[in-house]
Amino acid sequence: MTITGAVSRASLAEAKDRLEAVITSADLAGLGGDLFAVLHLIDREHGLRRAVSDPARDGADKAQLVQILLEGKVSPAALGLVADVVRLRWSKPSELADAVETLAVTAEAARAEADGRIDDLEDELFRFGRVVEGEVALRSALAGPGLPDDRKLGLVNALLEGKVTPATLTLVTELVLRPRGRSLEGGLAEYGKLVAQRRQRLVALVRTPVELSAQQRTRLAAVLAAAYGHEVHLNIEIDPSTIGGLSIEIGDEIIDGTIAGRLDDVRRRLGAG
């Protein structure tokens, strides 16, 4: 779900602004689900996707096509937002679909935020991603071709329903049933980053050989926030292989203060010599 075209990036920024305007009055319990339903339609109907992303076609015509297809099937808020999205210009048809997915995830994050549970949403997506990485049988069941969708849905509900935020259940279900070419853990990581962006926070993956105390977490978050100029959300992973110290990953940057990291550096230097 990486939008690379300059035209599409500008359009996505406009679409996000429109979403923010809609969020203030929309029924957030259904907005994300409606946007995901539109995404499913666009992904399934390739001709429609080309038609609503065609730069040579008048924006008003594309919006009218969306109105005809979706009126009465999704909420007025979702319909208006999608009409605005198709009026914009997109570098590739796939990037329009990616933008709709981004808006759907962001709407779910806004839903959790309105409930005062956006921190829970971030943590639950991260923790479930780690469970999936560590449990081969579970990952195979949820992401492999062996189970039909209804069985996968039943498994997700058995694992999560009533135990996580409604937004978490929606997002995990979406990724399990419609991965859009991603691994399940990769999709969870992407969605987690979008949730963090809702609060304009950076996400730091902290690997440590032992659990950090609440005071240590608070101090580390404050140090990173001062260094990066943004609030930083910590995802803590206990990793005995780090031996000592901390390994911190923020975006593409890795800060490795572990003994294992320093030993690896020494080995590289010796090998280079």
Can you describe what's shown?
It is a peripheral membrane protein. This is ATP synthase subunit delta. Keywords: ATP synthesis, Cell membrane, CF(1), Hydrogen ion transport, Ion transport, Membrane, Transport. It is found in: Cell membrane; Membrane. The chain has 273 residues and is an alpha+beta fold. It has three domains: 1-114; 116-200, no CATH class; 202-271, no CATH class. Helix content is 67%, strand content 8%. It is built from 13 helices and four strands. The protein has helices at 6-23, 28-44, 46-53, 59-70, 76-87, 93-114, 118-134, 136-143, 149-160, 166-177, 184-198, 214-228, 259-272, and strands spanning 202-208, 232-238, 247-250, 253-256. Strands 2-1-3-4 form a four-stranded mixed beta sheet. A hairpin with a 2-residue loop joins strand 3 and strand 4. Helix 6 (93-114) crosses helix 7 (118-134). It is globular.
List keywords for this structure.
single chain; alpha+beta
Short précis:
This protein has helices spanning 6-23, 28-44, 46-53, 59-70, 76-87, 93-114, 118-134, 136-143, 149-160, 166-177, 184-198, 214-228, 259-272; strands at residues 202-208, 232-238, 247-250, 253-256. It has 273 residues and is of the alpha+beta class. A hairpin with a 2-residue loop joins strand 3 (247-250) and strand 4.
